[in-house]
């Protein structure tokens, strides 16, 4: 299954690392475009003067580890597509170019299901997507989450409870499922 990751799921770090951990375990193939990666780098400016530089370093690692993930939207697709926010057309065009099954985003209103269905792409939010993967492969998802939780604790010097970390990452349903 091919999944296009929108910039809003690549940044912040915890969500991205969980998603890529699950992808490393073979549950899906991640896709993105250079423009999506650029949006992530620009969004990281908000965390301070080093935010963009850190994001660009993480993007370089992403490109190295996932060289086949970058897709280039076709100009014809971008010209013919319509979405409520014209600035998001490139995201759907990238999903089409990569033959993505799913476009993963928090921005449901920007990607109406009807428009998506016409292109053969399903829009999903990260919480529902990861919960579905957990139902199919609980150990792979649990291991990915635990790896990210442990690394967050190591880097911050703080203990993180899994459910609280997932809630902060906007994954409350997955947190609840893993907490059972």
From TrEMBL:
PIN domain residues: 2-107
Any Pfam family the entry gives: PIN_3
InterPro entries named among the record's database cross-references: PIN-like_dom_sf (IPR029060), PIN_dom (IPR002716)
Protein name in UniProt: Putative nucleic acid-binding protein
Organism lineage: Bacteria, Pseudomonadati, Pseudomonadota, Alphaproteobacteria, Rhodobacterales
